[in-house]
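In response to a reviewer's request, we include the raw inputs and outputs for one of the modeled complexes. The two entities were modeled together in a single run.
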Amino acid sequence: MAPLIVVGTGLAGYTFAKEFRKLDAERPLLLLTSDDGRNYSKPMLSTGFGKAKTADELAMNDATAMAAQLKADVRVNVRVEQIDATAKTLTLDNGEVLPYSTLVLAWGAEVFRPPMKGDAQDAVYSVNDLLDYAAFREALEGKKRVAIIGGGLIGCEFANDLSLGGFTPTVIEPMGRALPTLLPEASSAAVQAGLQALGVTFEFGAFASEVNRTDNGVQVVLSDGRRIDADVVLSAVGLRPRIATAKAAGIVVNRGVVTDRYLKTSADDIYAIGDCAEVEGLVLLYVLPLMAEARALAKTLTGQPTQVDYPPMPVAIKTPACPVVVSPPPVGVEGTWTVEGEGASTTALFHDAQGVLRGFALTGEATAQKTALAKRLPSMLG
Amino acid sequence: MNKWECIVCGFIYDEAKGLPEEGIAPGTKWEDIPADWVCPDCGVGKEDFEMVKL
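The model returned the following structure tokens for the whole complex.
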């Protein structure tokens, strides 16, 4: 019988395989990855400098060890070029055709990089997986100044972590504050103050339009003419679910690969989980939903059809200089923020027009209220 | 009293502090936490925690 094939060995792919094996020890399982298949935790990539961990130290197991642990085949350095949902086959970049009985897409999200001009594009890094992290660390060897493009979650986490690792980051954010899409203004101010106290500089209100080589490093030119000298540039603008290969196969996509609550795509026997999936309209690039999806799908594919439930899932942002926990209001819900507290510790609550609590943002010591507030939120799904 | 770190997200469970807001009293040993407990930040199970050496 053709194997169950999982495309991707990030947290989604490996977690699904682990959960599946708890319920079915026999069915042939094949995992494909375009990288080296080492098992690592992506959230740890933005705390690695503070902990002085190399990429090798962040890797927990290699592909061979994972294959043994999962009783699966793990094929590394292969890319899926094409899916034939009718013949139920995959075509790899080496031309090989693989039949599947069931296909699970867990290939994640890719870095979105706005176009920039200039002759130092090769000094612009992104960190989206362990290999990226290794390359970025190597580029920083003996360097000091890092320009970070983007003041969102990844940009702020890296600003904090790089500071702890002895670097001096400058964060470039076109909107006027840190974490602008996740937090109300007063909460942003608390995070900024925390990071500034660590030595982080913010450049707000313009976007990075150019990066050029200079005598002793690079220079980022902003859209209003400001210039920032740096040694290395980190682009942390955002992630987009990978959809192209699914779309080409005729699978319905929107922002992500569209699935129902069983994680099933529009094609028979093809499922999607993790950062590439859009589950009932929700694209959530976090670990908590991914774990819920992996567990539900493992049950579904072992004979117990199970819809994924999303309880309230607050996101912890790893900025130890000023910790943040946020549960953003659902997209499209109208309402108002009310903020209490001052300095580093702020509590922001978002109520809808009916006065129902729909989201919150906590900074500093106020993050201790996370569990109590999460209990008051409605479920996201289910 | 020990501390345990989630290897996926870095969340730390400190036995001395417990997690009173989740009904786990201060002083609760790791082995006394229910087997189906999951990391409050990322949802992984107890098997994905390691003891932190201090």
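As requested, we also summarize the result in words. The domain at 113-235 of chain A is CATH 3.50.50.60 (FAD/NAD(P)-binding domain). Chain A touches chain B through 17 residues (CB under 8 Å).
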